[in-house]
C-alpha cells in the first residue's frame, strides 16, 4: 500500500485524483500527439497542442532551433540538433477536441460542452486530450486546414491515445519519428508542442533528472515516468520529447507547486500500449499481481519470518481475491524474486547501471495472460510459483471516461455505483469534503467477486412517498428485501422483480427504508416528470429483463 496519499489535479477536466506520491502532479490540460506509420512498433509521428506544455522559463529552449556557435564569432543554425527538430516539426500536429463530461450527481445529464486543443495513417497523443470526446480535429504545422480524426484506441491508465485520419491530403509531407530508448540522467531532451500563449509550434529544452515509477494523474496508475527540469504547461503535453533524432517519450504532466519540473511517458510504456493495440485491436491494459507488499528492512521483522541475511524480499500483506495470485500465494509470504530478478528488502530491483526501480515495473511490462515465475519464502522454506498476470479492476473505479454513469431511480431514491468521479463532484478538495466513509471505502476496499459494486443512495428527490428519508442519502445499500446487493444491476432487478407488498432497503448504520411497492412504483412516474428526467434508469440497465419489468417513464405519469 502507498505510504501517504495526496491529490493530483487535472487541468483540463478540473478534477482531482487520489495518488500515492508525496507531491501533487498537474496533468497538461490539452496535450499534443504523435503520428504513427501503418506499423508503429518502432516509429511514430507526433502531434502537439495547447495543453500543459514543457516550458523552459530561462529561455534556453529556443537554442535548439537557433543555436549560435561563438567559436570565432561564426554563427550557424543547421546542427544535428536542429535537423532533428526540423524532422519533429514535420511530425507534430495540433489536436482540437470537443468533449462533454457527464454529471455524477445528476447522472441522467451531461455537463456543458467544452473545447480543448492538443498536440498529435496514426497519431499518438495523450488520453486526457480526447477523454469524453464528441468531436476531434487535427491540424499540421504551418497549415490552416483542419482534418477530422477518429479515436482508435485509448489507454487512460498510461494516458495515451491513438487517432486516425482518413484524408490522404493530411498525410502529404508528414514525417515519422522513431522510438528511441530510455534516456540516462542528465541527457538533454527537447519537447515540441503548442503551449498556451500562442498559436504557433514551440520547442523547449530540459535535462533528465529522474527515472522512476510515478503516479499518472489522468488514470491514477503507478507507471514508469521520466522527470525533466522543465515544466509541462498546457499545450506541450502529448508532444514528443526528442533526444538526438529519436523520440524519448511523450510529455504529459508536471509537478504542481514546483517550477520547471515536468514528466514524459517513456518508450517502454509507449511500446507496451502500441503492441497491445496492434495485437488485439484495442487497449488491453497493464498487468498487476494484485498484491500489497511491505518492505522487510527491519531486522526483527526479518528474523520473525526467517529471512536470513543472504535473502532479500518483500512481505505479502494483502491479496486481491480476483487475482490469480489469490489462489497461490498467502498472506505473510516473502517474495524473493520475480522472473529470476532478486527483489531487495525495499521492494526495488536493479535498473541500468547503479539505478534501481520498484519491482512493480517488471509486473506492469508483462502482457495480459503472460506468466511470471515468483520465488517465495513460506514458513522458512523456498518455493517457486508460476502465476498468470492480467489487468485488475478496483472495487471502486478510479475513472469512468468515455462512458455515461449508471443510475436507477425508484420512488425518488437515486441509486448509483460508487466511483471516484462521483467523489470528485465534491470539489477539488474531495478527499476532505466528500463523505469520509465512502472515501475510505473507495481507497481501501477490495472486490470479493467479479462484477461487484458498492451501490449507494446518492440523493432523494423529494415527494410524499419518501418524506422522512431525505437524510439517508450518501449511505451504502446493503440489502433489498433481505437479499444482499451485488451491484446496481442486481439492485434494479431485485426492485423491479419484487412481488411483496412492501419493499425494504437496508443501508449503512443499520438504517432502513420501507416503501409500499405499488405506491412507490406509481410515485416514480410523477417524480421523473417533475424533475424532467427522461428515464428511471440508465441505458446500460435497460436490458430486455429490466424493460419487461419496468417502464416507469414520464409518459406514463399520473
Automatic annotation (TrEMBL):
It comes from the Eukaryota. The keyword Hydrolase applies. It holds the Pfam family PDZ_3. The keyword Nuclease does not apply. InterPro entries: DEGP_PDZ, DEGP_PDZ_sf, PDZ_sf, Peptidase_S1_PA, Peptidase_S1_PA_chymotrypsin, Peptidase_S1C. Residues 396-540 form the Protease Do-like PDZ domain. One of its GO terms (biological process) is proteolysis. Gene3D superfamilies: 2.30.42.10, 3.20.190.20, Trypsin-like serine proteases. GO terms for molecular function: serine-type endopeptidase activity. Keywords: Hydrolase, Protease, Serine protease. Belongs to the peptidase S1C family. This is Protease Do-like 10, mitochondrial.
